[in-house]
Task: inverse folding
């Protein structure tokens, strides 16, 4: 049916006001007395570009959900002035709100439609713009608000991600020894407290480098830093990644927390492997650095109630027992060990160059 023929069926008054209706009510339909669509507003036509609404029966194209039981034009006319709840029968079955007003003289009716709360889905599904709505339609204001809110929420999300990343990085830095990449004393205290609180058995091994002072004295701190980084690599290779905690707690002092491990034979093997690897020559700028390591271990299973400070001190006592035995060895803590550490000023063996 042509637009002119549709206008003639709708009556001369509607034909004259067609442009006005399209501007003020871009989602209206004009029905003839038989309930057929004789004209549809431009936005409504945009929703079904491949299936023209004109010429079809209104109730065949739209499902009236409230009021129920509407099956004829007479039923529709009886719903004049009442808010209608309807949706397209084909897909996408967009939900709509509407109100019907009869034309004078029984010439049919005008149904003005809107999206209601479905407007966001409609804008997405049909790619609508502000030009598809009447200039005074409050839906435009709501769309602007939604867009502004979405932009603000996205900006807030990105800011939160950056802040979270910065927080994680700061926490990681606060728990990391920057030279070796190992955990620091603060991180060790945190993990040790958590393990004790959880009642998980563990072993604490103190590792102190032998003859490290001579490296610094004879080759400088750059050589010492290189040796410490190599030591860190050795201890990480000898322990369980993701389970054990390896920390640098002082200049040449390290602590390993073995979570869930108290087997003496297994711990002794780890200590032997660390000592063996550290005794291998470490090259640095044409020189060879030689160090060793002394180890001392305390087991949580030896205490009725493990306390962080006490078990750290006992592991340290076991470490110095190893030094008294001649260095480059490992000792488990026992109550009979003597506490005072040996002097370290003479820690200067020959350095091979």
Result:
């Amino acid at each position: 049916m042509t637009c002119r023929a549709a206008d003639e069926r709708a009556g001369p008054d509607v034909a004259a006001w067609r442009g006005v209706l399209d501007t003020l009510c871009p989602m209206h339909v004009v029905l003839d007395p038989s309930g057929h669509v004789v004209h549809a507003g431009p936005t409504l036509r945009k929703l079904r570009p491949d299936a023209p609404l004109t010429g079809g029966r209104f109730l065949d194209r739209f499902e009236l959900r409230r009021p129920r039981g509407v099956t004829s034009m007479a039923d529709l006319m009886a719903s004049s002035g009442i808010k209608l709840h309807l949706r397209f029968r084909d897909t996408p079955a967009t939900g709509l709100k509407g109100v019907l007003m009869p034309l004078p003289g029984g010439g049919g009716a005008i149904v003005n439609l809107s999206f209601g709360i479905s407007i966001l889905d409609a804008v997405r599904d049909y790619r609508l713009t502000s030009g598809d709505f009447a200039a005074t339609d409050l839906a435009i204001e709501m769309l602007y608000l939604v867009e502004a809110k979405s932009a603000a929420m996205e900006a807030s999300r990105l800011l939160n991600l950056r802040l979270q990343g910065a927080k994680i990085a700061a926490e990681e830095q606060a728990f990391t020894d920057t030279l070796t990449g190992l955990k620091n004393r603060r991180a060790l205290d945190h993990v040790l407290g958590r393990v004790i609180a959880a009642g998980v058995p563990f072993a604490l091994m103190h590792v102190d480098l032998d003859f490290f002072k001579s490296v610094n004295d004879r080759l400088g701190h750059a050589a010492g830093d290189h040796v410490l980084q190599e030591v860190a690599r050795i201890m990480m290779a000898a322990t369980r990644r993701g389970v054990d905690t390896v920390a640098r707690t002082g200049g040449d002092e390290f602590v390993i927390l073995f979570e869930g491990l108290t087997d003496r034979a297994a711990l002794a093997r780890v200590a032997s492997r660390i000592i063996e690897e550290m005794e291998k020559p470490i090259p640095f700028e044409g020189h060879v650095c030689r160090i060793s390591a002394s180890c001392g271990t305390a087991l949580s299973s030896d205490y009725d109630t493990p306390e962080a400070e006490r078990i750290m001190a006992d592991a340290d006592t076991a470490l110095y027992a190893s030094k008294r035995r001649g260095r480059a060895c490992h000792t488990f803590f026992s109550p009979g060990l003597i506490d005072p550490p040996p002097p370290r000023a003479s820690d200067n063996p020959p350095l091979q160059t």
About this structure: Residues 1-8, 348-353 have pLDDT under 50 and may be disordered. Residues 155 and 323 are 59 Å apart (CA to CA). The first strand starts at residue 28 and ends at 31. DSSP finds 13 helices and 13 strands in the chain.
